[in-house]
Amino acid sequence: MGVEGEPVVQKSIAEQAHAHYDRGVPFEIPLPTRSLYFLLETSARYYPNNIAIDFFGRTWTYEKLLREVNQAAQVLYQIGVRKGDTVALAMPNCPQHFVAFYALMRLGAVAAEHNPLAPDAQIAGQLERNGAKVAIVWEKCASSYTQIVEDGGTVFSVNLSASMPAKYRFALNLPVNKARKKRAQVRADVPAEYLSWDNEVANSRLLAATVPHAEVDDIAVILHTGGTNGVPKSVPLTHLNLGANANQNIFWVWKLHEGAETFWSLLPYFHAFGLTFFLICSVALSSTQVMLPQFDVDAALDAHKRRPISFFVGVPPMFDRLAKAARKRGDDLTSIKFAISGGMPLSREIAELWEHTTTHYIIEGYGMSETAPTMCGSPLTPERRHSSLGLPFPSTEIRLVDPANPSMDVEDGQPGEILVKGPQVFSGYLDAPEENQRVFHDGWLRTGDIARNEDGFLVMADRLKEMIITSGFNVFPSEVEAVFNQMEEIESCTAVGISDPESGEKVALAIVPAEEQEGRLTLADIRAFGEAHLPHYALPKIVELFESLPVSQLGKVLRHTVRDQITQRQGKPKA
């Protein structure tokens, strides 16, 4: 009770969190009023000669990038892409991906980001939901997009080596086995009806200035996710959602210097985490991004030697492997003053290794595709708390509620489902009215995650969803199970996550073979079937055969029991 007998009012989580903010971080952030394209235009105006991209040592200034973007926008405009149209992008991180993204932002079109290594079945479902009639794709995944051409659309193919330095292109074309293998990793034949993106952009004139821009509330990006229950969905994010979250992240790490930072661009653009930090935050700060098409420890450290990194955003296994390799190689990482980990829990061991190696703080962030993606983070101060989700971001409201009654907030210290509201929160999935009704409660997004409030810091307590997080990627058991349940040789199966020091979790599959298949179902059969239907990160790394799966009285598979049994088996030496 209060001093006059009135009940003590519990402070909101945001109010408690504000007491722990770094002194330079505001409680509210300014909201963008224009499209994302103007971030690039502004950087090109004020920092025209700053290096925007370093790709294997070949560089692009902001002035050069802006010109290429307007050439690319003209290419798309000429084939009929207009404001509001959706264009599929399927590339690793490369200059062409950057240019295509901002060309779409200039036109007010929508960039539907796809994993270039996703299986055909997954791509087909995503294209059906987002309705793209045009695609810009890496040669290696070109065959997954032929349906667009068959339906009267246009597909551009991207030659990854076209953006590499001349010495790399020369080496790839040498008539030796090593060069052939390298060339096969980056190049592939494409259907004759595809257009060359690289040639079309290089030979294009600039887009006319009279072409209208997007409004800040227009959709900018579509990301693909399993949402909060594992069913594949498409997440539309507006220029406001993404621009606001970029501002939230930039104000959170407020000591970053405009025009003076170098980002390690190692997370993929098709992932919400990589998209916001590298395609948006880096540009908003007029920074340089040292870009690689895939995460390679030695290539990343070599690039760091050439152009020292000051800001690194990644997932925990990246920090672990880079710190260990740098120590082994004798490389100095002390230039990396700012580091943010996300996508999966950051262990205290990895955090301490990184901080000891770089002599600077690492903090953890929390978010999801639906929040563009960040909603919480630890402060970049001695108050940081490793293994916590952090504090609610500026302009972000968080509640912890009873999952069975989301109108009822839980008391501090008690576990509750995380509900979030803020300018970075999306307004609903594409073509999923029933799911949208389920996932929103009185304007609050239900995350499906359970956490406790500890003086403004959120600490993960459990997951409503049985999601597996492996190397920062979300894998939903239902997605894996749906694939393998198609095999006639399998009677039933369940997927679980098994703790792994390198990736966070491994996907493990427990299988009950069909009666007539006992003794005939092979690991090779299972792997081959999985590779045809699942992205690489979702493939089971562990497969165990069961006579039957443990179930509850209601017949529901007891995943935690399956997980425990597989973990126990893995700990025993093979006979």
Characterise this structure.
This protein is 32% helix and 24% strand. With 575 residues, the chain is an alpha/beta fold. Among the domains are: 54-215, ANL, N-terminal domain (Rossmann fold), CATH 3.40.50.12780; 397-463, Luciferase, domain 3, CATH 2.30.38.10; 468-571, GMP Synthetase, Chain A, domain 3 (2-Layer Sandwich), CATH 3.30.300.30. Strand 17 (397-402) and strand 18 (405-409) form a beta hairpin. It is globular and about 65 Å long. It starts with 12 loop residues before the first helix and ends with a helix. 48% of the residues are buried. The model has no long low-confidence stretch (mean pLDDT 92).
Considering the chains and any ligands shown, give keywords for the structure.
575 residues; GMP Synthetase, Chain A, domain 3; 27 strands; 18 helices; alpha/beta; 7-stranded mixed β-sheet; Luciferase, domain 3; 32% helix; Rossmann fold
Q: Give the integer mean of the pLDDT values.
A: 92
Radius of gyration (CA) equals 24 Å
Q: Describe the main β-sheet briefly.
A: 9 strands, mixed
What's the CATH architecture of the domain at 54-215? 3-Layer(aba) Sandwich
Helical proportion?
25-40%
CATH topology of the domain at 54-215: Rossmann fold
**Silhouette:** globular
Strand order within the widest beta sheet: 2-1-11-10-12-13-14-15-16
| Class computed from helices, strands and strand pairing | alpha/beta
Quote the beta fraction: 15-25%
Total beta-strand segments: 27
The CATH class label of the domain at 54-215 is: Alpha Beta
**Total number of helices:** 18
The low-confidence parts are none
CATH homologous superfamily (4th level) name of the domain at 54-215: ANL, N-terminal domain
Q: Roughly how many Å apart are the termini?
A: 65 Å
